[in-house]
Amino acid sequence: MNTRIAVVTGAARGIGAAVAQQLAADGCAVAVVDLDEAACLLVAESIEKSGGRAIAVGTDVSDEEAVAAGVARVVQELGPPTVLVNNAGVIRDNLLFRMTVADWDLVMDVHLRGSFLMTRAVQGHMIERKFGRIVNMSSTSALGNRGQANYAAAKAGLQGFTKTLALELGKFGVTVNAIAPGFIETEMTHETAERIGVPFEEFKAGAAAQIPVARVGQPEDIAHAVSFFASEAAGFVSGQVLYVAGGPKA
Ligand code: NAP
């Protein structure tokens, strides 16, 4: 890959951090975007130590002004972005009758509004260069998951967002795809185990027992899939949802 400028949201840890490292290894200069700029800096520094180029950008993806300022910094410090990975995410799980409006709104704001704002802010740079790669992080929960009405709706929404943008942006050389991870070992799955009161190793073993490849996923499993969608070679692949879940379905 020629030096491209990639923006990865939610990249201070977990899947986003692995994606940022992978895209840097693929030759991208990477903007590591997350709420906490100090946490982003640790990832950016580790990329630079491995010989890559990265900057840390503290931005709340659900805040329109913060997104505009964050993208302006990327353009100024790295250059115009041509790869965007909308990965920032939160969970606020509860059965519907216990789900608060705040739980609903936060999940919609981070996943859907955040992906919308980031994509809208970045797409002009891609269109100008007649090249772009957008990857949205969905989830197997898009197919339905007890206790996740908010999250499942947001992740299914991202699939519709992906397919629509693929139709709108294709003629400008911009592809838009989604990845739907299954169980990936990160803070997010630790949080779920804690909420339901199961020790993490037990929770993980229970999940692995249901997964055809007989293990849970690691952030790198997702980073490899992003690497493909972000590559120049993937220019004829758009509007797809790739389930990366260790089996044919969730
Ligand atoms: P994670 O470890 O919790 O990382 C998510 C990151 O997003 C955190 O650093 C978080 O920051 C950041 N973030 C939250 N709200 C943000 C905002 N408004 N603006 C910017 N950054 C924000 O989760 P993960 O497991 O790596 O998940 C990454 C993505 O994959 C998410 O979209 C998730 O829904 C999706 N996914 C994960 C799994 C899984 O099994 N782990 C499965 C399917 C899909 P704070 O910590 O400061 O809030």
From TrEMBL:
UniProt entry tagged with the keyword Oxidoreductase: yes
Matching Pfam families: adh_short_C2
Enzyme Commission no: 1.1.1.100
Domain Ketoreductase: 4-182
Molecular function in Gene Ontology: 3-oxoacyl-[acyl-carrier-protein] reductase (NADPH) activity
Entry-linked SMART domains: PKS_KR
SUPFAM superfamilies: NAD(P)-binding Rossmann-fold domains
Oxidoreductase recorded as keyword: yes
Domain of life, source organism: Bacteria
InterPro entries noted in UniProt: KR_dom, NAD(P)-bd_dom_sf, Sc_DH/Rdtase_CS, SDR, SDR_fam
Protein name: 3-oxoacyl-[acyl-carrier protein] reductase
